[in-house]
Structure formats: C-alpha cells, structure tokens
Amino acid sequence: MAKSKINWRNHFIELLVVVIGITIAFGMENWAEKRRDRETQVNYLTSLRDDITNDNTELNHILDSSNVLNGNIDFLMRYVFANAPLKDLKYRHITSTYSAPYFNAKDGTYHSLVNSGSLDMISNYELRASITDLYNFYYDEISKADDFIHDLVNGQIYPYMIENIQFGSVQFGQNEILDDKPLKNNKVRNMIGSYTNLLKEREVIYRLTSEKCGSLLIDINAELAKLK
Q: I want to staple 168 with a disulfide (CB 3.0 to 4.6 A). Which of 87, 133, 178, 189 is the partner?
C-alpha cells in the first residue's frame, strides 16, 4: 500500500494561522491591559487633582482669613506694650489669640495609593516624585507649624485668657474688656510674641505650599491631557 504524501504546505499554513491567532490574542490582551492601566492612572490622577484643588482652596481661604486674625494680634501685641485706652480693647483682640484656623489636608487618595502599592501606576516619574514631595514634605511642614501653634494656644494662651480676662457686656454699657491688668505682664507679652512669630512663620509655609499645589495641578492636567 502506497504511503500518502504529506502536504507540508497545508500544515505550514495551518501552523501559521495558529501562530498569527495567538499573536493577535496576546496583542489584544496587551492592548486591553495597557488601556486598563491608562484608565486607572487617569482615575487616580483625577482624584489627586480634585484633592489638591480642594486643599489649595482651603489654604488660600485660611491665608485670606488670617489677614483679619493677624491684624487683631498685631493690635494686641502693641497694646500689651503701651498705655492705650481700655475702650480700644475689644473681644476680637482677645479671642483671636485662640481662634487660629488649621489646615486639614484631603489626603485620602494619596494614602490609598501608597498603602495599596499603587503609586507606581503613575508612570511619569517626575510627576510621581512631585506628588510625593507635596504630601511628604510640604504637608508635613504645615502639620508641624500647626502643631506648634495648637500646643501654645491650648497649653498656655487659651487657659490664661479664660481664667484671667474679665469680659464686659456692651448691652449694659460696659467696655468689652473690663480690666487689662492681666495683659500687662511679661508672661502675656511672651505668649503673644511667640504666637505672632509662629503665625508669621506658618503663613510663609502656607504660601509656599499653595504655590506648590498650583504648579502641581498644572503638571497633573498636562499629564491627563496626554493620557486621554
């Protein structure tokens, strides 16, 4: 019985079809995976952009409101060193010594990325480093500055003012502050002086951080434009 002739050409074509099919399948999977990664990266960057935008808005709000606070504290600082009329001393000058606002960062997205090990999903190394710098350096400096002020206010200024300052009632024809003697001592001068210096140092940090947020938002928007 004669052996049938093997049709190598057909076998080769069939093999080629299989190889091409596998290659296309891998290519499609690769493309789909890259698309998923890109979409994930867009979602992360969008969330970070929203958080940083909110943070920058809050920073600027605190800076704006600090103009009034600083004015009251500057007046009080001059008052404790001078012999100004008691009628010039108002509630706001005293309450401003313990009503400084504090920054509350919207850092949920960033910490979620770090804790899940997904920060590397941001493929732009320089952008990733800049984001890390904002949260790990700038926000850390703000936290330290806020903590110094918070400790001084809660540990010394607020207890002293509440215990020693006698507030009057304007509706009964009294001055807003009835007696300024508790303000005319070195302890108060030192507390208010320290408070003033800490507020001014913090303001510098807040402004630098706001500038950092602004430049980072520009970079994030540029990266999003490339990815979309």
A: 178
Closest to 73 measured CA to CA, from 197, 208, 201: 197
Cβ(154)–Cβ(217) below 8 Å: no
The CA-CA-CA angle for residues 49, 52, 57, to 5°, reads 125
Cβ neighbours, 10 Å, residue 114:
14
Number of H helices, E strands in the chain: 7, 0
Percent of the chain with pLDDT over 70: 81
d(CA 121, CA 119): 5
Instruction: Provide the residue type at 26 as one letter.
Output: F
Q: Name the residue type at position 129.
A: A
Summarised one tens digit per residue, pLDDT across range 163-197 is: 999 988 766 656 789 899 999 999 999 999 999 99
Phi, psi of 176 (to 5 degrees): -65, -35
Q: Reply yes or no on whether the pLDDT at 98 is more than 70.
A: yes
Under a CB-based contact definition with an 8 Å cutoff, are residues 205 and 112 in contact? Answer: no
Segment 82-109 mean pLDDT: 92
**Residue among 123, 146, 130, 105 nearest 40 (CA):** 123
Please provide the size of the chain in residues: 228
- Residue 111 burial by CB count (10 A; 0-12/13-18/19+): exposed, middle or buried? exposed
- Are 93 and 72 a contacting pair, CB within 8 Å? yes
The answer for 104, left when phi > 0, alpha when psi is -120 to 50, beta otherwise, is beta
